[in-house]
Recover the amino acids of this structure.
């Protein structure tokens, strides 16, 4: 039995790296600094250890050959999930390049709200250490922050010390839209977050009015979607009075049509505030299921984020048409490869197409895929790299145990070479 | 295997060889002396009438790190104009302003380059920079770690820590980030922007720390020198792009008090305020200062006309310049109490007065600085222009009539504001070889690179002599990387992986005491998880580390 300290997590997206984990054979127990997201993700037991072809257990090389044979004559295979570490994504992109495949990260439909805004007008963003040390006003838009990342407040808002905020408990937290599910946003001194509640789908209207107020435009209405305009005016004034305000949202939580316009409106509002003699920054939340990792590695390898295709022999990007679900539903795809090294509950979409699953041990299928190759989890079974939500910081994942499971990269490189 | 390159005309400034016919022998990836006695040549290349140089080295090019990837993500429309197909031996990707990693390696090699150095390795983002560079084939690479706006250094200065404490921190950072140099960008300015300062002159204080850019330059340049890091402190100065910044640059040169200092993309820091448009060339003053201050080296950061994207650590100046974004979209970031970045697409136009004069200022600088060992050919890729424009730039430097033809086409008011037409100088092949090979290797401190004498790694480029220098330099006949033939007739014929160049200056291990406390209290990562291990570079079997000697 050993205890490993300072373990970084690829699961929560906020880069917690202070976990202590007890390792006994193949079993892991988080004994310090666990949370509702990380603890079960680390502690999940290994069940499958051998690959299967048509439901029969086989050796790894046989499974790799079978996968290559399935992909050999495909016209448009889709590689979905894309939930793995940097080396896994490198292998995935090499395979996709050779097979002429679509590459589609499973969280992209949510992330698209950010990418469309970014690619149309850009933004001014910040990262977690700046939040920890500078933020004096946190505005959370449409997102249940503590459910997304249980330790966000503990680590980055109610931290004991900050370099530029004398008393962190004096920080102000304001929710716009959805109210929080718990009390993590309540300061250590007992101050509750202010909640300007509205329906999530009403955020476009509310954010538009808020931005107008920030810009000093006259608003004649007294209320918008249940929020008093005077409350929004007060928020606009707080932005201007704050030294370093931060606006955060999870793109996937803005689950309504054309939510990219809300992200754009927020990002442009942040720019407006920076033109009024103070600082303000955005902080998009992400980093789950390897999404930032997929977009980063796909970005440097192809120029585009992780919803693109190689079918023409070179990378092409379309954030709508390359959606796995759409390609399966339209009958455009002719094979599915599902890569999910982090979460065995994240199963491939149902399809009658030939299916190869390269995933975390323990995945349970309603329909057995043609090929299933259980792989190690980055940060548990092998070392690796994963990106945090803030897109700048890649964390170095540790190997915690010797499970003998291959890495995603080994498997995908094997399939690529077999082609 | 013994390879012989027979009868080529060799330009090897590192050995003082200027256009002499010479045979070169290659074995086990290195250049060797002609073997004694009888020997069998396995491969012989007849290079009569060809020009032989060592592989070119780009000493300042943004090829790895987060801001470049933001630039890529920001500009899908730019990639669509330049899709790159896969082949049996090469990966697909995209080209133009901010090419994908694989295409970066191929296109550099196809121009005869065999190494590129990322000048802005943020300590917290160094891991990403190395991972991206790990996906650049053929080229050797390395990076200059960025300091000067990190809160830890500014706290050391405010606490009046001695130079030794600074040196230990700088050396430790170079180790953890796997760097070969140290860079400072808008010294202290990126930090000041976080406190809502929008400009920071050389002697202006950071609102929180009370520290000035001059002090930051002084302690960092001293640290680099005292640690024996061969590459002088790499400086992106204050006031980038601001009319009148020529004075800031001259003051910066004077202020460093004779310490070695490299001023990067100096074109962007050479602007006066004369003329009807209050924008003029400061190139003559800058060149005079360079010529008379032997401790100073520069690279130019030439702009060339067309679409590109500017990606810089200088979020203060990038924010100020966002109104020139074309297309109109841009990104800035504050980063981890460490640094920042700003990405602003630019389209430089020859009929825009300012852009046209920027073009002329860069060329004036090239032509007025006398010593080719202290000036380097860069466009600050992709900020002034994509690196693929180097052959065009070389022609501008080597061919006066071509240069004057181009000059005649730019904004007429800009033509009046430049002395370019009166400058007769044409660069020689030897001077090009100095700027892009021997000088660059010497400046960075690369042992056994940048030369063609025995013992050097066999990074060799062979061109067909052509009076059209652009044609000559854009399509080498052969390129060898570590003795492997990688390019024939300007096309990649095989690929390999280059090494990562670093230096490892000594530090007192007790430096980690203060750092551990700082990391635990204020940062978001444990110190142990912050440090990049050698494994991370080499574990995939492709990367390797080459540690270069320190200066004594």
């Amino acid at each position: 039995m050993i205890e490993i300290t300072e373990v970084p997590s690829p699961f929560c997206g906020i880069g917690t790296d202070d976990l202590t984990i007890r390792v006994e054979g193949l079993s892991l127990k988080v004994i310090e600094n666990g949370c509702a997201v990380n603890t079960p993700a680390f502690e999940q037991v290994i069940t499958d250890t051998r690959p299967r072809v048509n439901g029969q257990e086989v050796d790894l090389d046989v499974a790799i050959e079978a996968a290559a044979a399935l992909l050999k004559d495909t016209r448009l295979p889709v590689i979905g999930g894309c939930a793995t570490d940097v080396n896994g994504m490198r292998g995935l992109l090499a395979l996709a390049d050779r097979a002429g495949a679509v590459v589609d990260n499973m969280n992209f439909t949510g992330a698209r709200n950010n990418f469309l805004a970014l690619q149309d007008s850009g933004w001014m963003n910040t990262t977690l250490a700046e939040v920890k040390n500078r933020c004096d006003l946190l505005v959370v838009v449409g997102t249940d922050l503590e459910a997304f990342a249980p330790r966000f407040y503990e680590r980055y808002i109610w931290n004991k010390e900050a370099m530029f905020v004398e008393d962190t408990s004096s920080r102000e937290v304001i929710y716009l839209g959805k109210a929080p599910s718990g009390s993590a946003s309540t300061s250590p001194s007992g101050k509750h977050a202010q909640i300007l509640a509205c329906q999530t789908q009403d955020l476009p209207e509310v954010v538009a009015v808020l931005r107008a107020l920030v810009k000093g435009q006259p608003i004649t209405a007294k209320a918008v979607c249940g929020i008093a305009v005077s409350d929004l005016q007060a928020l606009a004034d707080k932005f201007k009075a704050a030294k370093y305000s931060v606006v955060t949202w999870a793109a996937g939580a803005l689950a309504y049509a054309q939510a990219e316009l809300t992200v754009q409106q927020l990002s442009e509002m942040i720019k407006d505030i920076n033109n009024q003699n103070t600082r303000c920054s955005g902080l998009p939340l992400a980093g789950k299921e390897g999404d930032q990792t997929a977009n980063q590695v796909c970005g440097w390898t192809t120029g585009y984020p992780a919803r693109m295709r190689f079918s023409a022999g070179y990378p092409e990007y379309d954030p709508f048409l390359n959606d796995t679900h759409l390609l399966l539903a339209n009958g455009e795809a002719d094979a599915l490869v599902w890569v999910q090294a982090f979460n065995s509950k994240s199963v491939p979409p149902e399809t009658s197409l030939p299916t190869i699953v390269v995933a975390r041990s323990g995945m349970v299928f309603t329909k057995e895929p043609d090929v299933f190759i259980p792989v190690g989890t980055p940060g548990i079974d092998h070392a690796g790299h994963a990106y945090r939500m803030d897109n700048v910081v890649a964390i170095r994942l540790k190997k915690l145990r010797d499970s003998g499971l291959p890495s995603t990269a080994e498997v995908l490189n094997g399939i690529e070479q077999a082609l | 295997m013994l390879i012989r390159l027979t009868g080529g005309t060799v330009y090897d400034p590192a050995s003082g060889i200027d256009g002499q016919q010479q045979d070169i022998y290659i074995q086990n990836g290195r250049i060797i002396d002609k073997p004694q006695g009888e020997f069998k040549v396995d491969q012989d290349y007849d290079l009569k009438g060809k020009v032989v140089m060592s592989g070119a080295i780009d000493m300042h090019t943004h090829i790895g790190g987060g801001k470049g990837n933001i630039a890529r993500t920001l500009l899908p429309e730019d990639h669509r104009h330049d899709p790159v197909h896969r082949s049996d031996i090469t990966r697909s990707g995209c080209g133009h302003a901010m090419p994908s990693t694989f295409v970066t390696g191929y296109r550099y090699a196809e121009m005869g380059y065999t190494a590129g150095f990322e000048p802005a390795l943020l300590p917290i983002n160094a891991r990403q920079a190395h991972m991206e560079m790990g996906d650049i084939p053929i080229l050797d690479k390395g990076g200059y770690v960025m300091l000067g706006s990190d809160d830890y250094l500014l706290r050391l200065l405010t606490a009046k820590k001695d130079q030794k404490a600074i040196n230990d921190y700088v050396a430790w950072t170079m180790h953890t980030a796997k760097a070969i140099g140290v860079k400072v960008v808008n010294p202290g300015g990126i930090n000041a922007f976080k406190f809502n300062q929008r400009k920071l002159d050389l002697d202006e204080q950071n609102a929180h720390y009370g520290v000035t850019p001059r002090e930051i330059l002084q302690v960092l340049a001293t640290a680099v020198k005292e640690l024996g890091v061969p590459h002088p402190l790499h400086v992106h100065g204050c006031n980038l792009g601001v009319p009148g910044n020529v004075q800031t640059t001259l003051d910066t040169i004077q202020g460093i008090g004779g310490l070695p200092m490299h001023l990067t993309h100096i074109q962007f820091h050479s602007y006066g305020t004369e003329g009807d448009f209050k924008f003029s060339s400061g190139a003559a003053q800058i060149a005079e200062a360079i010529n008379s201050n032997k401790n100073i080296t520069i690279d130019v950061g030439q702009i060339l006309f067309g679409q590109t994207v500017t990606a810089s650590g200088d979020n203060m100046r990038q924010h100020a310049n966002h109104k020139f974004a074309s297309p109109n979209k841009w990104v800035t970031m504050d980063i981890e109490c460490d640094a920042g970045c700003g990405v602003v697409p630019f389209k430089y136009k020859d009929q825009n007065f300012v852009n046209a004069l920027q073009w002329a200022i860069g060329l004036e600088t090239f032509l007025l600085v006398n010593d080719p060992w202290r000036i380097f050919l860069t466009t600050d890729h992709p900020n002034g222009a994509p690196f693929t424009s180097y052959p065009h730039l070389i022609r501008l430097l080597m061919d006066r009539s071509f240069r004057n033809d181009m000059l005649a086409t730019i904004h007429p008011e800009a033509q009046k504001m430049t002395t370019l037409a009166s400058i007769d100088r044409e660069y020689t092949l030897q001077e090009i070889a100095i700027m892009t090979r021997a000088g660059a290797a010497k400046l960075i401190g690369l042992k056994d690179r940048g030369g063609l004498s025995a013992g050097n790694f066999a990074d060799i480029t062979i061109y067909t002599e052509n009076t059209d220098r652009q044609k000559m330099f854009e399509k080498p006949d052969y390129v060898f990387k570590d003795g492997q033939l990688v390019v024939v007739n300007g096309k990649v014929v095989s690929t390999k992986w280059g090494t990562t160049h670093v230096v490892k200056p000594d530090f007192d291990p007790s430096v980690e005491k203060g750092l551990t406390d700082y990391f635990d209290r204020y940062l978001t990562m444990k110190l142990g998880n912050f440090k990049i291990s050698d494994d991370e570079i080499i574990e995939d079997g492709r990367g390797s580390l080459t540690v270069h000697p320190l200066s004594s």
Remarks:
- Residues 260-274 of chain A form the longest helix (15 residues).
- Residues 379 and 397 of chain A are 4 Å apart (CA to CA).
- Chain A is about 30% helix and 25% strand.
- Chain A touches chain B through 67 residues (CB under 8 Å).
